[in-house]
């Protein structure tokens, strides 16, 4: 029985039921697609994926390939649309079952439907939810439609009635497969139509993509520096690599599972210390889950101007406001510093994201979806649910029961009182 693992946003071998299940067959192979559509200009005039996340992805796929090879599984990598490649691939390799992570957003559905329409109906498609902390089968709600509109209600009920599943065992070595055809090559940034770049020395995210790199970061943040024990005090920081866990880019493309992070926190609580900070990282992982459930419940409303509340605000669409916001040339130095950071690195802190989003949508009253699309293009940790869900939340069309607007100047005073962050990004660079 030949099984194929189709990797999308689950780029890991460990704690991945798609890998575990596929390895129960006699022969297993794997595939990943750099889909050209992901590197094209998209809605609102931005490339769907810019160079920062693309490089992170290239590194992630490179490590995935190496880790799979340790199990004798070959990862084929194509720079092509899945629906162009899959029909021949499944035929040549006599595939019986395709295993993949279940996604539910529009673009992912379209691609899967296009593949299914072109391959024999006899091929079994097995999809598993690999991206959650609380598995959809384990949450205390009888149907997705009953997911509450307010996070706190969701969190409290899950904390009381749900359990995080234990980590799955990594499968043992497979027999060497005799894959027909030759090895494939991971495309370069240039081949994806993107320019090469040097990492900005000011970056707060000086890390590389990949499953090993994610574990390395957990090791460093939890065990070496024990920063996890102070997380709640530092999490609103703006400077350096250690004010927060920085795990989001690996979580977003699935190089690490939220369960792995959760069980490491529990181990830390047992072996080092249990406090508000260790709990707060779990709290944030539940936010991550919540936005996924909001997206499951509301589907394409996530991308509609009225959001999940069907709100009718008067939104502007000014090219000049967009230019100024993106280039860090607004009336607010704190917004400008954050916008320069994301443009130079693909990273922005949570505090920064909240402020620049509030400024764009609430202060300037510009179409919030433009801001979300810009973030989608640039962010190293772009995740469809977290990005569009947080943007809705900060724009008054989502799950914030208080519908707050940030006072940017008092935020800057509170979180960057000495102006260190603003100086870092707003000073003229001599080199
Ligand atoms: C406008 C806006 C857009 C955002 N877009 C994204 C996005 O595309 N991808 C993304 O992963 N996060 C997004 N966030 C959430 C948050 O800013 C980042 O997850 C966080 O800054 C990542 O840094 P960290 O890993 O050090 O987080 P930590 O503070 O260490 O938190 C640990 C983990 O919890 C999760 N988490 C923390 N805060 C949130 C949150 N508000 N919503 C959802 N999950 C959270 C992340 O997976 C994060 O890695 C967005 C927030 C805003 C306000």
UniProtKB/TrEMBL annotation:
<dbReference type="Pfam" id="PF00875">
    <property type="entry name" value="DNA_photolyase"/>
</dbReference>
<dbReference type="InterPro" id="IPR002081">
    <property type="entry name" value="Cryptochrome/DNA_photolyase_1"/>
</dbReference>
<feature type="binding site">
    <location>
        <position position="231"/>
    </location>
    <ligand>
        <name>FAD</name>
    </ligand>
</feature>
<dbReference type="Pfam" id="PF03441">
    <property type="entry name" value="FAD_binding_7"/>
</dbReference>
<feature type="binding site">
    <location>
        <begin position="244"/>
        <end position="248"/>
    </location>
    <ligand>
        <name>FAD</name>
    </ligand>
</feature>
<dbReference type="InterPro" id="IPR036155">
    <property type="entry name" value="Crypto/Photolyase_N_sf"/>
</dbReference>
<keyword id="KW-0274">FAD</keyword>
<protein>
    <recommendedName>
        <fullName>Cryptochrome DASH</fullName>
    </recommendedName>
</protein>
<dbReference type="GO" id="GO:0003677">
    <property type="term" value="F:DNA binding"/>
</dbReference>
<dbReference type="InterPro" id="IPR014133">
    <property type="entry name" value="Cry_DASH"/>
</dbReference>
<keyword id="KW-0285">Flavoprotein</keyword>
<feature type="site" description="Electron transfer via tryptophanyl radical">
    <location>
        <position position="315"/>
    </location>
</feature>
<keyword id="KW-0456">Lyase</keyword>
<dbReference type="GO" id="GO:0003904">
    <property type="term" value="F:deoxyribodipyrimidine photo-lyase activity"/>
</dbReference>
<dbReference type="InterPro" id="IPR006050">
    <property type="entry name" value="DNA_photolyase_N"/>
</dbReference>
<dbReference type="GO" id="GO:0071949">
    <property type="term" value="F:FAD binding"/>
</dbReference>
<dbReference type="InterPro" id="IPR005101">
    <property type="entry name" value="Cryptochr/Photolyase_FAD-bd"/>
</dbReference>
<comment type="similarity">
    <text>Belongs to the DNA photolyase class-1 family.</text>
</comment>
<feature type="site" description="Electron transfer via tryptophanyl radical">
    <location>
        <position position="391"/>
    </location>
</feature>
<keyword id="KW-0157">Chromophore</keyword>
<dbReference type="InterPro" id="IPR014729">
    <property type="entry name" value="Rossmann-like_a/b/a_fold"/>
</dbReference>
<comment type="function">
    <text>May have a photoreceptor function.</text>
</comment>
<feature type="binding site">
    <location>
        <begin position="381"/>
        <end position="383"/>
    </location>
    <ligand>
        <name>FAD</name>
    </ligand>
</feature>
<feature type="domain" description="Photolyase/cryptochrome alpha/beta">
    <location>
        <begin position="1"/>
        <end position="139"/>
    </location>
</feature>
<feature type="site" description="Electron transfer via tryptophanyl radical">
    <location>
        <position position="368"/>
    </location>
</feature>
<dbReference type="InterPro" id="IPR036134">
    <property type="entry name" value="Crypto/Photolyase_FAD-like_sf"/>
</dbReference>
<dbReference type="GO" id="GO:0000719">
    <property type="term" value="P:photoreactive repair"/>
</dbReference>
């Amino acid at each position: 029985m030949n099984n194929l693992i189709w990797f999308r946003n689950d780029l890991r071998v460990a704690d991945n039921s798609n890998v575990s299940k596929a390895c129960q067959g006699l022969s297993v192979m794997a595939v990943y697609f750099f889909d050209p559509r992901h590197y094209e200009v998209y809605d609102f005039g931005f490339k769907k994926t810019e160079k920062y996340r693309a490089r992170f992805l290239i590194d992630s796929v490179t490590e995935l390939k190496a880790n799979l090879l340790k199990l004798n599984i070959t990862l084929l990598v194509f720079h092509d649309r899945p629906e162009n490649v899959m029909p021949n691939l499944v035929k040549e390799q006599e595939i019986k079952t395709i295993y993949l992570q279940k996604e539910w957003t529009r673009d992912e559905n379209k691609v899967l439907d296009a593949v299914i329409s072109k391959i024999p109906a006899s091929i079994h498609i097995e999809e598993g939810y690999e991206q959650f902390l609380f598995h959809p089968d384990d949450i205390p709600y009888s149907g997705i439609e009953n997911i509450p509109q307010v996070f706190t209600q969701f969190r409290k009920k899950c904390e009381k009635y749900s359990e995080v599943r234990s980590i799955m065992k990594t499968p043992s070595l497979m027999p060497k497969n005799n894959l027909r055809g030759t090895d494939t090559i991971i495309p370069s940034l240039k081949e994806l139509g993107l320019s090469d770049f040097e990492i900005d020395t000011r970056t707060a995210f000086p890390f590389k993509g990949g499953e090993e790199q994610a574990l390395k970061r957990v090791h460093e943040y939890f065990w070496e520096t024990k920063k996890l024990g102070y997380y709640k005090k530092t999490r609103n920081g703006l400077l350096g690599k250690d004010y927060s866990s920085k795990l989001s880019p690996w979580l977003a493309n699935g190089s690490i599972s939220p369960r792995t992070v959760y069980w490491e926190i529990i181990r830390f609580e047992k072996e080092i210390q249990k406090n508000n900070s260790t709990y707060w990282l779990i709290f944030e992982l539940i936010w991550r889950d919540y936005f996924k459930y909001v997206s499951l419940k509301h589907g394409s409303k996530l991308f509609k101007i009225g959001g999940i509340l069907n709100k009718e605000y008067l939104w502007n669409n000014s090219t000049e406001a967009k230019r100024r916001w993106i280039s860090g040339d607004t009336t607010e130095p704190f917004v400008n510093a954050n916008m320069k950071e994301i443009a130079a690195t693909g990273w922005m802190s949570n505090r920064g994201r909240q402020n620049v989003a509030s400024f764009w949508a609430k202060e300037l009253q510009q179409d919030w979806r433009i801001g979300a699309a810009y973030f989608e293009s640039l962010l190293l940790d772009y995740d469809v649910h977290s990005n569009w869900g947080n943007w809705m939340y900060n724009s008054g069309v989502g799950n914030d029961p208080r519908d707050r607007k940030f006072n940017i100047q008092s935020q800057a005073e509170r979180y960057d009182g000495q102006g260190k962050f603003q100086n870092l990004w707003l000073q003229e660079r001599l080199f």
